[in-house]
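Narrative of accomplishments. A recurring question from our advisory board has been how the design workflow behaves on a single, concrete structure rather than in aggregate. To address it, we present the structure tokens for one chain from the evaluation set, followed by the sequence designed for it. No filtering or post-editing was applied between the two.
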């Protein structure tokens, strides 16, 4: 084999290895105001994508999460991360940003059952849930089962931005102007 062919073979091999490594290391970017369904197994194992593993939620208001970690940016007003267990009660989760604990969901007894009905799960006090404030910044989210009596399951999470005060004040001011114009017009008619 000539020197050029050897160098070409080495270059192709190195490029393939680099691509494989960079593809594995990339996190999934997620959107906000969307319920994502994730799959979990034993305690201490990071949650992952539900694709091909989970039953969709009965309400049709979620989508399968891609593989973790899940990345997103929170703007100036902050956001809330909500984690909601589903199906059988008894699970508890911990959420981490770049390895730093954000919080744990509620502790609940084993035995509750809301099946795959996300809306029923949200209102069931026997199904674990947690809501955590997120300050502005970049996040790389991992979720782990802290307690998993059935060693497998599915749950949901979402990130909801908090409107900035200027947005709220602007809306209130616009509403006040509209109400004032309505009252002024009403007085003219009377």
């Amino acid at each position: 084999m000539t020197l050029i062919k050897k160098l070409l073979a080495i270059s192709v091999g190195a490029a393939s290895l680099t691509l494989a490594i960079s593809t594995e290391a990339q996190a999934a970017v997620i959107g906000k105001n969307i319920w994502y369904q994730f799959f979990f197994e034993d305690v201490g194992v990071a949650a992952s994508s539900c694709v091909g593993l989970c039953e969709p939620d009965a309400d049709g208001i979620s989508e399968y999460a891609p593989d973790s970690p899940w990345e997103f940016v929170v703007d100036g007003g902050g956001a809330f991360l909500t984690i909601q267990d589903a199906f059988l009660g008894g699970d508890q989760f911990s959420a981490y940003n770049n390895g730093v604990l954000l919080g744990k969901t509620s502790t609940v007894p084993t035995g509750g059952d809301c099946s795959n009905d996300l809306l029923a799960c949200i209102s069931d006090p026997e199904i674990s849930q947690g809501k955590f404030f997120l300050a502005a910044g970049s996040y790389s989210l991992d979720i782990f089962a802290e307690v998993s009596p059935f060693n497998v399951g599915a749950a949901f999470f979402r990130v909801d931005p908090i409107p900035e005060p200027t947005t709220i004040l602007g809306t209130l001011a616009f509403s006040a102007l509209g109400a004032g114009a309505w009252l002024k017009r009403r007085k003219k008619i009377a």
